[in-house]
Design a protein that fits this description.
Elements: E1 5-13, E2 20-25, E3 28-32, H1 41-54, E4 61-65, E5 71-77, H2 84-92
Length: 96
């Protein structure tokens, strides 16, 4: 894996009232998404939300596994000092 490339497991809950990080269960981030799981809308909303929360471009966030599943693996290209633990903690710090 390239330096600064972080992989996270997430579980999405589509059709939520608002898009937000909802916490963590067994090492998997739980993320509520306002978008419906139709035609990739939920994946687009997930990428948009994570990019916004982490302060990176949308092109730096990519769904690499689970495009049509609730459980997904996300790759985030961020600074060389970042790791999965620090990214997870940053997102959990913004949990609603």
């Amino acid at each position: 894996m390239k330096p600064g490339l972080v992989r996270l497991s997430v579980q999405v809950v589509p059709n939520a009232r608002k898009s937000e990080v909802a916490g963590e269960i067994d090492g998997v981030l739980r993320i509520r998404l306002q978008a419906q799981p139709i035609e990739g809308r939920a994946n687009e909303e997930l990428v948009r939300l994570l990019a916004k929360l982490l302060g990176v471009s949308k092109s730096s966030v990519q769904v690499v596994q689970g495009l049509s599943a609730r459980r997904k693996v996300i790759e985030i290209q961020c600074g060389s000092g970042a790791d999965a633990h620090s990214i997870r903690q940053a997102l959990l710090g913004q949990a609603g």
